[in-house]
Amino acid sequence: MYFPIRCFTCGQVVADKYEDYCKKTGEGQNPAKVLNELGVERYCCRRMFISHVEVSEKIIKYDKM
């Protein structure tokens, strides 16, 4: 599933911060601190980042049979 453009609860745009979030957390930074730096304050918006699971890479393996 692709990362949503807007928060499901409040409608705030969150997709523009996802790439920076992935890069910084991939480098080993604390996700809570990264979200604070990016200005994501609402817990509903923070949930969008923390609970997202990237499954497209797994699906692509089984795409062509």
Record keyword descriptors for this entry:
single chain; about 60 residues; mainly alpha; Arc Repressor Mutant, subunit A; globular
Description:
The chain has four helices and no strands. By secondary structure, the protein is mainly alpha-helical. The protein has one domain: Arc Repressor Mutant, subunit A (Orthogonal Bundle). The longest helix has 9 residues, at 18-26. The model has no long low-confidence stretch (mean pLDDT 90).
Q: What's the end-to-end separation, in Å?
A: 21 Å
Number of domains: 1
The biggest sheet, with number of strands, parallel, antiparallel or mixed sense and barrel status, is: none
How do the SSEs run, as a string of H and E?
HHHH
Low-confidence stretches: none
* Residues in β-strands, percent: under 5%
CATH topology: Arc Repressor Mutant, subunit A
How many whole angstroms does the radius of gyration measure?
13 Å
Give the total of beta strands: 0
Portion of residues within helices:
40-55%
CATH architectural name: Orthogonal Bundle
Mean pLDDT: 90
Structural class, by secondary structure, is: mainly alpha
Number of helices: 4
